[in-house]
């Protein structure tokens, strides 16, 4: 529903009046941002020490030894949810991604560490096979190199049950296989995990902005081919609405649009069409671009971070997955809100 514009005329109407002072700009601000709007994507690795990620300056893979303390810090900053992604050692990768269903795998152990150090923070576990496969695809692959949909969904169900048993609060299928939301929902319910939420990567595009993420989980060097047969075509938007509608019908509690900034139109359309909890993922390539621009002196990093996060909120996102989450939360806690 379009809002009717107020037919004001100059000079009786001067829109600059409400912009003239900081207190006034804050008073009439239409969009607000708080730590409650942030989800922190965290990479986890084996060993005792954190590992820097070269293509994502300022982002590390957290060791199991340190992940619990990091989660506690996030909770103290007011961040409500952490999203976990593993760096799987090459010797644990296989064609069938069987490590994804190992109750003692890296993600499951990290869930335990987080729950013991920060029991009140939400933990979201990614459901996809690309961190675990030797070919880097999100699903199983046949002899012709085709991604097998239904066979992959069966494995994803076992992965989701494994993560639920480890104690995660939310399952996030990011694989983009058809029918996986309903199948996973049924599997969780049958195992007694009715309370575990599903946040679906419902509109995940085959994007050029994922490169640093693939470095972070160790799949860039092993990826064979591309993911265009299951991730969405960047040219399409109506298809995104169909994907969201299907996932909601199958039992998704909330949905993600990924990437974020290049797809603000999709965020807006999804929120307006369905009115459900809608999230945007400020992906690794977006993060790396902003950091590189700031490091070159081309822009003010803090200002750019907040402007980009506000853009997601203004478009209709209820929250944002962002690698800037801890930094943004610290500044928000210091200032209570963004001061225009």
Short descriptors:
11 helices, 12 strands, 340 residues, alpha/beta
Notes on the structure:
The protein is of the alpha/beta class and 340 residues long. It has helices at residues 22-28, 64-76, 106-117, 149-166, 180-190, 211-217, 238-249, 264-274, 284-295, 301-315, 325-335; strands spanning 38-45, 51-52, 60-63, 81-86, 122-127, 140-141, 147-148, 170-173, 197-204, 254-258, 278-282, 319-322. Helix 2 packs across helix 3.
Summed up, what is this model?
The chain has about 350 residues and is α/β, with parallel strands linked by helices. It has helices at about 20-30, 65-75, 105-115, 150-165, 180-190, 210-215, 240-250, 265-275, 285-295, 300-315, 325-335, and strands at about 40-45, 50, 60-65, 80-85, 120-125, 140, 145-150, 170-175, 195-205, 255-260, 280, 320.
Distance between the termini: 28 Å
Number of helices: 11
Strands of the biggest beta sheet: in what spatial order?
1-4-5-8-9-10-11-12
What profile does the largest beta sheet have?
A: 8 strands, parallel, barrel
Helix percentage range = 25-40%
What's the total count of β strands?
12
Mean pLDDT: 94
How much strand?
Answer: 15-25%
- Runs with pLDDT <50, length 5+? none
Specify the structural class: alpha/beta
The gross shape turns out to be globular
Elements, N to C (H/E): HEEEHEHEEEHEHEHHEHEHHEH
Query: What is the gyration radius calculated from CA atoms?
Result: 21 Å
Task: Give the topology.
Layout: H1 22-28, E1 38-45, E2 51-52, E3 60-63, H2 64-76, E4 81-86, H3 106-117, E5 122-127, E6 140-141, E7 147-148, H4 149-166, E8 170-173, H5 180-190, E9 197-204, H6 211-217, H7 238-249, E10 254-258, H8 264-274, E11 278-282, H9 284-295, H10 301-315, E12 319-322, H11 325-335
Parallel strand pairs: 1-3, 1-4, 1-12, 4-5, 5-8, 8-9, 9-10, 10-11, 11-12
Antiparallel strand pairs: 2-3, 6-7
Helix pairs in contact: 2-3, 4-5, 7-8
């Amino acid at each position: 529903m379009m809002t009717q514009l107020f037919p004001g005329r100059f000079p009786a109407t001067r829109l600059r009046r409400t912009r003239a002072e900081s207190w006034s700009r804050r008073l009439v601000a239409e969009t607000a941002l708080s730590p409650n709007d942030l989800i922190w994507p965290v990479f986890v690795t084996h060993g005792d020490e954190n590992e820097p990620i070269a293509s994502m300056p300022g982002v590390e893979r957290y060791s199991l030894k340190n992940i619990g303390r990091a989660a506690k810090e996030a909770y103290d900053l007011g961040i409500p949810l952490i999203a976990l992604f593993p760096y799987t050692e090459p010797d644990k990768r296989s064609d069938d991604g069987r490590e994804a269903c190992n109750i003692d795998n890296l993600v499951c152990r990290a869930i335990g560490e987080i729950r013991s150090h920060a029991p009140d923070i939400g933990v979201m576990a990614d459901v996809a096979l690309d961190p675990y496969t030797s070919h880097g695809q999100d699903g199983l692959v046949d002899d012709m190199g085709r991604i097998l949909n239904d066979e992959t969904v069966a494995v994803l169900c076992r992965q989701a049950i494994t993560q639920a048993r480890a104690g995660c609060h939310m399952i996030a299928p990011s694989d983009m296989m058809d029918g996986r939301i309903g199948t996973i929902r049924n599997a969780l319910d049958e195992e007694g995990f009715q309370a575990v939420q599903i946040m679906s990567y419902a509109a995940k595009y085959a994007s050029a902005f994922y490169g640093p993420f693939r470095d972070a989980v160790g799949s860039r060097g092993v990826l064979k081919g591309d993911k265009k047969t299951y991730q969405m075509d960047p040219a399409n938007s109506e298809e995104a609405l169909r994907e969201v509608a299907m996932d909601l019908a199958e039992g998704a509690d909330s949905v993600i649009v990924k990437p974020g900034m290049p797809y603000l139109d999709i965020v807006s359309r999804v929120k307006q069409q369905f009115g459900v909890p809608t999230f945007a993922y400020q992906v690794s390539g977006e993060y790396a671009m902003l950091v590189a621009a700031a490091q070159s002196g081309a822009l003010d990093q803090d200002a750019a971070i907040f402007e980009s996060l506000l853009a997601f909120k203004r478009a209709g996102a209820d929250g944002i997955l962002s690698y800037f989450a801890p930094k943004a939360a610290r500044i928000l806690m210091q200032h209570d809100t963004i001061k225009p």
